[in-house]
Amino acid sequence: MSDFTENIELADNWALCTFSDISEGENAIVDGPFGSNLKTSDYIDEPLNGVPVLTTKNLEGDYSDKTVRFISKAKFEELKRSQVKPGDILVAKIGSIGKTGIYPKNARTAIIPANLLKFTVSKQVEFNYVYFYLNFLGLQNKIKAIATATAQPAFNVTKFRLLEVPLPPRIEQHRIVAKIEELFSSLDKGIESLKTAQQQLKVYRQAVLKWALEGRLKNENIEEGELPKGWKWVKLEEVVDEFVRGPFGGSLKKECFVPNGYKVYEQKNAIYQSTELGEYFINENKYRELIRFKVKPADFIVSCSGTIGKLFMIPKKSPQGIINQALLIIRINRDFLLDKFFIYLFTSSVFQRIIIKDAKGTAMLNLAGVKDMKLVPVLLPPIPEQHAIVTEIESRLSVCDKIEESIEHSLKQSEALRQSILKKAFEGKLVPQNPTDEPASGLLDRIKSEREMNKPETPRRRRAGKTKKAKS
Fold first, then answer.
1. 178 and 99 within one domain
2. CATH code at position 103
3. Separation in Å, CA 50 to CA 16, 65, 265, 432
4. Higher per-residue confidence, 98 vs 466
5. Which of 7, 98, 163, 463 is the most exposed place for a label (fewest CB within 10 A)?
6. Given a cut of 60, is residue 262 above it in pLDDT?
7. Co-location of 89 and 202 in the same domain
8. 73 located within any domain
9. Does residue 349 share a domain with residue 210?
């Protein structure tokens, strides 16, 4: 698909053009101003009087005032070349290149920063035909091909303007869009059903854990609140040997880090269940100084800031190191708790709600403190029953895993089908051609003529016009 428009045999009455050919108005395809022209100091806290500055996040569909920043109208006039009007297409040109969005028709005039591009489509062209083409994998691959390979991929606006578009007659564009929308509607209903099933699986998983941790998987006659034989309520501190929260304050400053040495475990190690991630190290002297925060095999580390409550058991032969301030070590007493039983207990929605409900912070949540966590009530079964519960949980969740795998496969197939529909559309194979349709070349001629007529008048054009009148 990467060379989709190269050597393609165009359908009858189609034409190969560029994005620039089907754009409209002055500055129809432009990016935002360079950083030096739009600085942090230019932003104002005046939503009512300011002009919105859009970001890549807006491409998700939310363009409300709470998702944007603002500049003054005077600053907007300076940067007016990069203005966005309702109905313009937005494209990410740095970072998530090729990601697209439509600026809503009821929105006010805005402006884009340097990492976005805006595209005003000619009114002579079916808007949704162009938008579908921008989201076609064949075109997305072409955008990647014109991008520079830097820390953040980026593409040149001039190269974007010259990307080729297979253009059908205007009437056929309508037929193609109608057919795509019809097929996508059926596809979306199927995807919605699959995602509903995914959510139901999540609910079922948590229900299994709840029943298991209440003793009701093996004791179906147990009523709500009744304890199975041998079970008892304990505080978490009664079955945990040690809680260790990472060092705060100036214990781990930037100057402490070295290229190689003892590992500093971070949030992402708990979140992504890996000891390989991370790039911070300390020397032996610093390690000895902070030895209290040492990570040992079979320790559980917990994320405590931002993405909170994620649990990871440190495997054997892991790198020696310490935790940072955003982690908590929990060392369970294995006379009372099995590792797997503790994992299911900690990750159950009931337990997570208890430790997160009092999380402090606004911009970034922090997990309940060690003092509070020690007092969390836990329903504890005898060790033999923990073994039976773990076996029952794993049996039921393995079925969920297989269903989840099947759903994921179906979702991937749905996306492949979506792209197959688009490929057929832009090859002229989705709807029949009508030889009586006006050729796309006529449409392009009209767009070109209209563009010439609407060009802003310059001194040179005025002189040319006067000369023409004098001769006539």
1. no
2. 3.90.220.20
3. 41, 10, 44, 49
4. 98
5. 7
6. yes
7. no
8. yes
9. no
* Residue 31 pLDDT > 50: yes
The answer to whether position 465 is within a domain reads: no
State phi, psi for 451 to the nearest 5 degrees. -65, -40
Exposure string of 445-459, with b = 16+ CB inside 10 Å and e = fewer, is: eebeeebeeeeeeee
Q: Amino acid letter at 255?
A: E
- 328 and 249 part of one domain: yes
Answer yes or no: do 100 and 19 share one domain. Answer: yes
At position 236, the amino acid (one-letter code) is L
Distance separating alpha carbons of residues 81 and 33, to the nearest angstrom: 9
In this structure, are 100 and 23 located in the same domain?
yes
Centre a 10 Å sphere on the Cβ of residue 219 and count the other Cβ atoms it contains: 16
HEC letters along 110-147: EECCCCEEEECECCCCCHHHHHHHHCCHHHHHHHHHCE
Task: Report how many helices (DSSP H) and strands (DSSP E) the chain contains, helices first.
Answer: 13, 22
Q: Residue 199: give the domain boundaries.
A: 170-223+382-433
Tokens representing 316?
A: 């054997």
Same domain, 242 and 206: no
Number of domains into which the chain is organized: 3
Q: Which of 142, 169, 196 is the last residue of a domain?
A: 169
Q: Which two tokens stand for residue 401?
A: 């895993």
pLDDT band at residue 363 under the 50/70/90 scheme: very low
Instruction: Report CA 124 to chain centroid distance, whole Å.
Output: 34
The DSSP bridge partners found for residue 116 are 92
Q: Are 4 and 429 in contact (CB under 8 A)?
A: no
Give the span between the Cα atoms of 218 and 392, in whole angstroms.
8
| Alpha-carbon 343 to chain mean position | 28
Least confident of 56-70, 269-283, 311-325, 355-369: 355-369
pLDDT of residue 322: 95
The alpha carbon torsion through 212, 218, 221, 222 (nearest 10 deg) reads -40
Q: Which amino acid is at 200?
A: Q
Q: Which residues of 164-177 are buried (b: 16+ CB within 10 A; e: fewer)?
A: bbbbbbbebbebbb
Q: Are 366 and 267 in contact (CB under 8 A)?
A: no
pLDDT at 366 over 60: no
Residues 351, 240 share a domain = yes
The dihedral formed by the CA atoms of 215, 220, 226 and 227, expressed in degrees to the nearest 10: -30
Stated pTM of the model = 0.74
Beta-strand pair 300-303/327-332: antiparallel
Tokens coding 165: 């578009």
